[in-house]
Specification:
By secondary structure, the protein is of the alpha+beta class. The chain is about 25% helix and about 35% strand. Strands 1, 2, 3, 4, 7, 10, 11, 12 and 13 form a 9-stranded mixed β-sheet that branches. It has a 5-stranded mixed β-sheet with strand order 14-16-17-18-15. Strands 5-6 form a two-stranded antiparallel sheet.
Length: about 290
């Protein structure tokens, strides 16, 4: 069994818990996710099954969309509702135009520091473990991109936004930073991932739905083939000689139509088999992940 599953992660369990459950349901050891959601968060969790675990890094790189509810005036040590309240502030509720202006300032590329209570490793140890021991160390800021923020609802002290962003963005940190910008503090109350790459929440299966399909022997019908999951990646059909070179890990000459340094390409042989994922490097197409 191989391919991709779009699962609707429930609140209260970790992304790894979801992986473990799906492993048992499918009877398949090779299952991995393509981007962690915090235990309290819900929504799209894309899972790779069998040989498809080899494309996890490519799917994880896809754009993400979230709907977040935050509370103004209260800060916590984890930047979300699961943490210890650090401070509660009195404040004059901001008007809608002030909120829109503040949100606009977070759109674009910038350095974002992951929260201390995160899975980022420090010397091989997850930062959240050090934080729980009172030994949190400063984490290195990361370059991230927020492509858009839309104000969905505002009923002080609650604020709902949708965020479209690159991988690696911590919505908890965004809420905390917005609270600082407004001068009143804030924390994340609820988070739903509504899209990951081309995978939508409207198409996601709950664990109960997947379990029912597995019991009825219908799980194969909902597993998305690798190639369909990568349908936005341009495809290249090569000659028999070039197919042989690609499958042995060697580069081939770049066709004129495939320009752009670093562009990812799906490589197929003449019968249409999916051979490899490769990148444009200089004048060549060089394989990165070979399947055939």
């Amino acid at each position: 069994m191989e391919g991709i599953l779009n699962v609707h992660k429930p609140s209260g369990i970790t992304s790894h818990d979801v992986v473990q459950r799906v492993r048992r349901m499918l009877g398949e050891r090779r299952v991995g996710h393509t981007g962690t959601l915090d235990p309290a968060a819900t929504g799209v969790l894309v899972l790779c099954i069998g040989k498809a675990t080899r494309i996890a890094q490519y799917l994880e790189a896809g754009e993400k969309e979230y709907q977040a509810v935050m509370r103004l005036g209260v800060t916590t040590d984890t930047f979300d509702a699961d943490g210890r309240v650090v401070e509660t502030r009195g404040y004059a509720p901001p008007d809608r135009s002030s909120l829109l202006q503040a949100l606009k300032g977070f759109v674009g590329s910038a350095l974002q520091t992951p929260p201390a209570y995160s899975a980022v490793k420090v010397g091989g140890v997850p930062s959240y473990k050090l934080a729980r021991q009172g030994k949190a160390l400063p984490l290195t800021p990361r370059q991230v991109t927020i492509r858009g923020i839309e104000l969905v609802a505002y009923n002080d002290p609650l604020l709902t936004v949708t965020v479209t962003c690159s991988k690696g963005v911590y919505i908890r940190t965004l809420c905390s930073d917005l609270g600082k910008q407004l001068g009143m503090g804030a924390h994340l109350l609820k988070l739903v991932r509504t899209r990951s790459g081309g995978f939508l929440i409207s198409d996601a299966l709950t664990l109960d739905q997947l379990d029912g399909l597995c019991r009825e022997g219908g799980a194969e019908a909902v597993i998305i083939p690798m190639e369909r999951a990568l349908s936005d990646v341009p495809a290249l059909t090569v000659s028999d000689d070039d197919a042989d070179r690609i499958t042995h890990g060697n580069g081939i000459s770049r066709p004129v139509a495939f320009s752009g340094e670093g562009v990812l390409v799906r490589v197929h042989d003449q019968p249409g088999r999916f051979l490899a994922l490769a990148r444009v490097r200089g004048g060549e197409i060089r394989p990165e992940t070979v399947f055939a």
